[in-house]
Design a protein that fits this description.
single chain, 543 residues, alpha/beta, Luciferase, domain 3, GMP Synthetase, Chain A, domain 3, 3 domains, seven-stranded mixed beta sheet, 17 helices, 30% helix, 25% strand, globular, binds adenosine-5'-diphosphate
Length: 543
């Protein structure tokens, strides 16, 4: 029997139209590239998003078109999120840390028609200009006064908005139409696009709002350290307006001292980010002897949060919630919020639990499987590859049938490439990674791409790149080389081969020589054995 309830499509713009009406006191505080602080309410952000939508329409943007952004966390980027998806186009956030080659690839692959960028990225756009697709319109996210002097044909954000009506007839869209696009690294080859729908985006906002009430509540002041170009700031620009939390946008200033100051003066109650950024903040907290006065929660994810970091925050009275997720999961999959029944645990027991990646959010199912595909028990001991399923998980990659085929198992679950245990209370613990990637400061480096480039050196007979631990960046690449003869390549020669293809920060930190690479039973290079062999390797900048 059919239920008899209305079926209204879920729409991203409704998060903002709701906030404008229901949370009049809440809004955005942004550190601008121009150097000052900007404030606007959600009602003002809605009016400006309407103006922007008119401007986009005037530029010829139509439903389904991709509009790209290359920008820090700030109010104009937020307005782009809502204007683009609200009018039925797709907001494609580009990660400025990608190499020029990767950036050009994704702009072409996405088929972007307009690119909006912050003042910071003017030199980058100038350098890329001659390789950008013909017809791509370029808009600088600033006012006339700050427009850069270049030979490029650039439009000005504030000029586009000026004089446009402050209301827009937001179209009613099927809820499964695309709203946002974010590329993630492939283990090899090109980045792959996760294409979020209006439905998945709104459901993800619900799921994080319900799972993380300490961060997301009416009147909260949340500072997304995690960039808006990195999986939509983990959903904060959507969940914040939904619950009536204000967003404190730090722009490009992410060093410990700047973040501490901003948190202190803006009464920030919660902040979300990757461990590398938290290292800077914890050092600043240690220097000043206290956490910013209103800070009650730090959400740490993207890489494993070290136990010492969790303890440091907790001892300063800041609750730590360790979260795990992926670009392909919108991204939050699990969170480490302890349940009320766990409040009488000892400090030691709580730290142990908080070091794990936490429990699944509502709507995401987890399974761990053995190599032959059989499901493993959730006993906290059996480790297997982690698969996920849910309304906020990708069903494939944008315009990439090959990667789509490889992503899902026979039952339609998505393979995360992480190896994990799950305990009887549902706490996930990430143990290892099957995907051949290195995660440095929250960003990916493909070991296979580095290996392919190094193999082009005539003195390299064979090689492998593995992750080794680094106190600041979490992981850094180490190149292990089997030399062809007595004459050995230098690291500088190898770097020279890689430059231009990879971003500078992605190049290996060091190189070691071995007689042969260890092999698995099936004859592949055993990265596991290599990682174990070099587990205690100390990189040059840490010695
Ligand atoms: P994000 O960095 O936003 O979480 P990515 O798609 O770039 O999304 O990276 C996802 C991967 O990062 C996961 O598959 C896992 O390997 C790793 N990861 C994310 N969070 C954690 C965590 N808390 N602990 C360990 N690894 C993590």
């Amino acid at each position: 029997m059919q239920g008899m309830m209305m079926n209204r499509p879920l729409a991203v713009i409704d998060l903002l139209t709701y906030a404008a009406e229901a949370h009049p006191g809440a809004g955005l505080v942004s550190v601008r590239c121009e150097g000052d602080i900007h404030r606007e309410t959600y009602a003002e952000a809605l009016a400006r998003s309407a103006q922007l939508a008119h401007a986009l329409a005037a530029l010829g943007v139509k439903r389904g078109d991709r509009v790209a952004t290359l920008a820090w966390n700030g109010y104009r980027h937020f307005e782009l999120y809502y204007a683009i998806s609200g009018m039925g186009a797709v907001c494609h956030t580009i990660n400025p840390r990608l190499s020029a080659e990767q950036m050009l690839y994704i702009i072409g692959h996405a088929g972007d028609s307009v690119l909006f960028f912050d003042l910071t990225f003017v030199p980058l756009i100038e350098a890329l200009a001659e390789h950008l697709p013909k017809g791509l319109r370029l808009v600088v996210m600033t006012d006339r006064e700050h427009m850069p002097q270049t030979g490029l044909d650039l439009l000005c954000y504030e000029e586009l908005l000026a004089g446009q009506p402050e209301r827009f007839a937001w179209p009613e869209l099927p809820e499964d139409s695309a709203a946002a696009l974010c590329y993630t690294s492939g283990t090899t080859g090109h980045p792959k696009g996760a294409l979020y729908s209006h439905r998945s985006t709104v459901l993800h906002a619900f799921s994080i709002a319900v799972s993380l009430p300490k961060s997301l509540n009416e009147g909260a002041r949340v500072l997304p350290v995690v960039p808006m170009f990195h999986v939509n700031s983990w959903g904060l620009p959507y969940a914040g307006p939904m619950v009536g939390a204000s967003l404190i946008m730090p722009g490009g200033k992410l060093d410990g001292a700047s973040v501490w100051e901003l948190m202190e003066t803006e009464n920030v109650t919660a902040s979300w980010g990757v461990p590398t950024v938290w290292l800077g903040l914890t050092a600043e907290i240690a220097k000043r002897g206290r956490a910013p006065h209103a800070l009650t929660q730090a959400v740490i994810g993207g890489s494993a949060a070290p136990r010492s970091m969790i303890e440091n925050f907790e001892k300063m009275g800041v609750d730590v919630c360790h979260a795990w997720g992926m670009t392909e999961m919108s991204p939050v999959g699990t969170h480490g919020q302890l349940s009320a029944s766990m409040s009488d645990l000892s400090f030691e027991q709580r730290m142990k639990l908080k070091s794990k990646q936490g429990r699944r959010v509502f709507g995401v199912d987890l399974k761990i499987v053995a190599e032959d595909g059989t499901a493993l028990p959730h006993d906290g001991k059996a480790a297997g590859e982690l698969f996920v399923r849910g309304n906020t998980v990708v069903s494939g990659y944008f315009n990439n049938p090959e990667a789509t085929r490889a992503a899902l198992d026979d039952d339609g679950w998505f393979g995360t490439g992480d190896v994990a245990t799950i305990d009887p209370h549902g706490f996930l613990s990430i143990q290892d990674r099957t995907k051949d990637l290195i995660k440095s400061g929250g960003e990916w480096i493909s070991s296979i791409d580095l290996e392919n480039l190094a193999m082009a050196h005539p003195k390299v007979a064979n090689c492998a790149v593995i992750a080794v631990a680094h106190p600041k960046w979490d992981e850094r690449p180490l190149l292990v080389v089997v030399p062809r003869g007595e004459d050995r390549p230098t690291l500088e020669e190898i770097h020279a081969l890689m430059e231009g293809h990879m971003a500078k920060w992605q190049l290996p930190d060091d190189m070691v020589f071995v007689e042969a690479l260890p092999l698995t039973a099936t004859g592949k290079v055993s990265k596991l054995t290599l990682r174990q062999t070099f587990a205690d390797y100390v990189l040059p900048d840490v010695r």
